[in-house]
Amino acid sequence: MARLKLDITMSLDGYVAGPSPTLEEPLGQGGEGLHEWVTRLAAWREQHGLEGGETGPDNALVEETVGAVDAWVMGRRMFSGGEGPWEDDPNPDGWWGDEPPFHGPVFVLTSHAREPLIKSGGTTFTFVTDGIESALEQARAAADGGDVQLSGGASVVQQYARAGLIDEYQIHVVPLLLGGGTSLFGALGDQIALEQTRVVPSDVVTHLSFVPAS
Amino acid sequence: MARLKLDITMSLDGYVAGPSPTLEEPLGQGGEGLHEWVTRLAAWREQHGLEGGETGPDNALVEETVGAVDAWVMGRRMFSGGEGPWEDDPNPDGWWGDEPPFHGPVFVLTSHAREPLIKSGGTTFTFVTDGIESALEQARAAADGGDVQLSGGASVVQQYARAGLIDEYQIHVVPLLLGGGTSLFGALGDQIALEQTRVVPSDVVTHLSFVPAS
Question: Distance from the CA of A94 to the CA of which of A175, B16, B23, B66 falls in 20 to 30 A?
Fold first, then answer.
């Protein structure tokens, strides 16, 4: 069965977004710095239709991760930054423009039903209103043997973690302090136990992998 | 001049102690798990007058760290868990019994003056009431060319970090979630910027080193 893999970047002080996110600054104050390590890589740039970029260990890891994923699950907040009915959402088509970087099926958790959104380049956004298990089930069927990536945000990650549904945690820790914002793990605490399976070091980020402790 | 090196263990969710610390459970709920990685090492056991223990990369790193340090700075809370006047402190001689593992000069930051405390095995606790710069100055003089280790707790770390006085941050990240408690960095956020200098991976802990970004 397709594995559910969390893939997310976290500041050294535990945040996946800084304080006070807005439409203009969706990752909050200082939050843009979280993803500098990845946006300069060749694998990320290729995924986004751009040329050039750095190669090396970080790039190899991103290539490996992207290559194994055939479907995505994310929260509504991560998709658009909005909440409530879609007609009131100022960003109802998501952050990624006409050709999003997924090139595959994405399942968006929301309380508000909506028809699927078909984009160029093979990305489809399907809006799931009947809960995290349903979204995972649909993503697994769509992945057809590949992995399912859980992309965030923190609230959705915590729901899946608490339900014991995450098979692998890959967390990219960057040497950045945000001092507040959206905590990746929140109050999860002893509700989950992790076993470290891999550490890939580099100059600007540390890639940590975990599985649920048996 | 002697370098001030932070050396501290942090949970993956950013805490150096769990919720609700007590005299019986000074590291709070779940906090004991923070130091399992080190207490089983030969270098730690030798420092504490015990035989045996594991060797390997973690042990080599602890040996290297301990060997370079000739004086320590810590907060009152880390020393005894108490606060206020010493005569009301239920643990006025600290956590470490008659022969503490420091075997050298330790400077304890406190608001309450007190004569130095001389212990067996070369450990002296000097109580500093005139602030963090003074404690560091005294520790540097006492270290006589070695390094000064900043051991914690979080409040003292944040004071030294904010003042730009920490030369090196060594943080041992363990795959443990505490879900609350004492945050290592608190609200420091953009008050300090770090540059990663080293990552030493192992199976049960990741050793991250940083210097202040230039």
Answer: A175
Say whether B49 sits in a helix, a strand or coil.
Answer: coil
Residue of B12, B182, B207 best to disrupt the A interface, most CBs of A under 10 A: B12
CA–CA gap between residue B173 and residue B204 (Å, rounded): 9
Nearest partner of B66 among B122, B7, B120, B17, judged by Cα: B7
CA distance A117 to A90: 16
Phi, psi of B189 (to 5 degrees): 45, -130
Does residue B1 register a pLDDT over 90? no
Task: Please answer whether residues A210 and A196 qualify as being in contact, where contact means their C-beta atoms are separated by less than 8 angstroms.
Answer: yes
- Which residues 22-61 in chain B show a CB within 8 A of chain A? 29-30
Please indicate if any CB of chain B lies within 8 Å of the CB of A211. no
Task: Give residue-wise pLDDT tens across range A153-184.
Answer: 999 999 999 999 999 999 999 999 999 999 99
In tens, the pLDDT along B19-76 reads: 999 999 999 999 999 999 999 999 999 999 999 999 999 999 999 999 999 999 999 9
